[in-house]
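Lab notes, practical 5.
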Amino acid sequence: MKIFPENASSYGGEVDFIFWLITGVVAVASVIVIFLLLYPVLTRRRKLTKTQRYQKGEGFRNLRLIYLGILLLAIADFFFLYKEGPTWTKIEETLPDKEFHVAIIGRQWLWEIVYPGPDGKLYTADDVKKINQFYMPVNSVVHMDIQSYDVIHSVFIPNARFKQDALPGRNITRWVKMTKTGTFPLSCAEICGIGHANMKATIIVQNKEDFKKTLTKLYKK
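Output from the prediction step:
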């Protein structure tokens, strides 16, 4: 049984690693906390001594376990930051040179994909628009200008481990590099009205030769 959709992007594996790392550490911490809660309940006698009934929590001796917990929590947080830092920088703060450039514009309740026309430049008179159909070449860095016409939407590509909100009045440029050909879903991950659940698009990742043919057909329409 697969927990996640198939990874089809260049950085999806790194995102999955961070997820499992955090899940593993939190799972271990949860087991320890549950043990500390249940152990005295199951092992102490019903008749308690005065000391067992009440602890004032004064001094290091009584507080040492709390201090230890705070220390372990701080170490875990800094460890997570250390491990996820390079991944965050690579995905969120670095914009590699583009090989293709599109605009993804959300509106209730569809995705408008804007492709550069024959001049190869986006936002010119010969741009081509498609509704809910996103073609891209495999193994190529694709820049995506994410925008919204009306309310807040969110571009979610599960197979790429990609998610980015689309905000009215803002242009947010992100990137993705798909490493496998095929058809993958794109959906809205932000509740945006009564048609939210149906706000879906299809990503078609093609080899570069087929992608060029697809662009040629788009230009002729």
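Observations recorded by the TA: The chain is about 40% helix and 25% strand. The first helix runs from residue 12 to 43.
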